[in-house]
Amino acid sequence: MPDKHLSTQFDSELNGVSSRVMELGGLVESQIGLAVYALQNLASDAADQVTEIEHRVNAMEIEIDRELSSIIARRQPTARDLRLLIAISKTTANLERVGDEANKIARMVKSIIESGAPRALPSSDLRVAADLASGLIRRALDAFARLDTAAAVSILKEDDAIDREFDGFVRKLITYMMEDPRTIGASLDLLFLAKAIERIGDHAKNIAEFIIYIVKGADVRHTSMQEIESAVQ
């Protein structure tokens, strides 16, 4: 991760908080997996597990924030070390929000089960987008652990694939609602789920941008892909 310092204790603290972020990422990944399983199988027990993990995710976010505040106050880092700590804070916040989206999916699945919404709707079509989003989060965490800017750029490019899946799914739902108005309620539920999945991809994209910020010192948010590729060269 970071360069060597005169203070080996500082190195240890940086590595420790980075490891905590990876641990948090693992919890969030499990939430996504359970949420997708709950959606595909209308499994109430899996949805309940997502909510249980959410409490651990929230607690860990607070713990990491406290640790970061302590390190910054005691060490007063500069340059790349400061960028690393800022990016860790933002990455932690994004991971917590991914957990929120997974929890939204779980709650909606419970609602669908309780309402007996028709199974004929294309809920299985969400699997492709969900798998893409889950894969992007996994790759973003791996790239963050290695501070791999090339991998970060690849993730930024692939986020567009999730957006395309979302747009296609919305068009399909509109067709269902036009053909049978009785499906409007259930279709809106699925639209809510699709949007949650799309946001998971957006958070993976944010993490990828933080990697570039740490390594290159360039803020590539809201910039073109050409500008991003130029920044990492």
Segments where pLDDT lies below 50 for 5+ residues?
Answer: none
Q: Give the termini separation.
A: 19 Å
Number of helices: 7
Q: Could you tell me the strand content as a percent range?
A: under 5%
* The first-level CATH class name: Mainly Alpha
Percent range for helical residues?
over 70%
Sheet bearing the most strands, described? none
Output the CATH homologous superfamily.
Phosphate transport system protein phou homolog 2, domain 2
Helix/strand-derived class? mainly alpha
Order of helices and strands: HHHHHHH
Tell me, briefly, the overall form: globular
Residue-averaged pLDDT? 89
CATH architecture: Up-down Bundle
Radius of gyration, in Å, reads 19 Å
Number of strands: 0
Q: What's the number of domains?
A: 1
- The CATH topology, please? Methane Monooxygenase Hydroxylase, Chain G, domain 1
Structural account:
The structure is a single chain. With 233 residues, the protein is mainly α. The chain has one domain (8-232): Phosphate transport system protein phou homolog 2, domain 2 (Methane Monooxygenase Hydroxylase, Chain G, domain 1, Up-down Bundle). It is 84% helix and 0% strand. The model has no long low-confidence stretch (mean pLDDT 89).
